[in-house]
Amino acid sequence: MAGLVKFSLIFYAPPAAVAACKAAIFKAGAGRYPGPGNYTECCWSTLGSGQFRPGTAASPHIGTVGKLEETPEVRVETLCVGEEVARRAVEALKKAHPYEEPAYHVVRVEDF
């Protein structure tokens, strides 16, 4: 794993969907920490509140078109070693996540 680019995958999901989303991204290779400990399924999560207003063409999993919605969500952060792992993890997240448009971002991690 030395020399591979690392990324942090961060996503938000309703509490009931977090286990399925984590299982999917871990199966895709996310959450493996490089080093002698061979740690897998590593992540950090916290409960917060998400807010959105579904547009007129939306088919929301939670909420109503045109109405501002605020709902509990869990923020999950994990490591992806290598661009291919990050891409596979995002693809797996999109398939496992119940939202029409899951909120996520991928950030390149620098080693110092």
From TrEMBL:
InterPro entries, A to Z: DUF34/NIF3_sf, N-reg_PII/ATP_PRibTrfase_C
Keywords, comma-separated and alphabetical: Signal
Taxonomic superkingdom: Eukaryota
Keyword flag rRNA processing: no
Leader sequence residues: 1-19
Annotated coiled-coil segments of the chain: none
Keyword Signal found: yes
PANTHER family noted in UniProt: NGG1P INTERACTING FACTOR NIF3, PTHR41774
Record's protein name: ATP phosphoribosyltransferase
